[in-house]
Amino acid sequence: MSGFLGSTVGKKYLMGISGLVWAGFVLAHMAGNLLIFVSHDAYNSYGHALTSGKLIYIAEAVLLLALIVHVYTAVSLTISNRAAKEQKYAVAAKGAKRVSLASRTMAVQGSLILVFVIYHLITFKYGTHYETTVNGVVMRDLARLMEEVFQSTTYVVWYVVCLILLGFHLSHGVGSSFQSLGLMEGTYRGTWKKLSYAYAVIVALGFIAQPLYLFFFATN
Ligand code: HEM
User: Are 174 and 19 in contact (CB under 8 A)?
Assistant: First the structure.
């Protein structure tokens, strides 16, 4: 990458925008999944409606592109950040040549979330294909798969841990994205910050409730 998009500011911009694409997706994904609290039929019909149109392919392509851009810019910025810090402090203060705790944890959080997403796709998107019929329409029974998966304590714990991490990642990441896009300036700084925290808490708690509900109150 060269020019503006290849510069540090450009990469931060790209990282922010690609992160916000995913932030929008996780909010929609969490909200849609809440239908599992209504009924299996409601959840399956929703999943069926989403996946039977052509729009899903566009959405998947956008998500994949955003993921690649996000990971690429994150790795690239982390590497140049570390190199810059080491150069700056190599002679002066030995103990000070450390990357800030926040940025170090962002990279670890991001890597774990990436592992989570890949494993998540294997579990659900490419998992067992049960079928059910709702109002005469044959469709995938994703609710049954979800309920089955979340009978396992290991899965539930893994999900809860990763979703807490996602909450931290989002609370810091969404705020940083707003900053990169120049929204964190002036009087509205505090408001944007609060909004990104509130958003992160809603997404994390909304998701966490799902495995816990299925673990404790499974109906089948
Ligand atoms: C309690 C938490 C979650 C549950 C129960 C859940 C459930 C599901 C299910 C059942 C599917 C399959 C949908 C289908 O194939 O039609 C799915 C797909 C997917 N999930 Fe999740 N999900 C959760 C959290 C997350 C999180 C936190 C992320 C991202 C950080 C995520 C990313 C995705 C992606 C990218 C897909 C594939 C979408 C597509 O390409 O059609 N999920 N999820």
Answer: yes
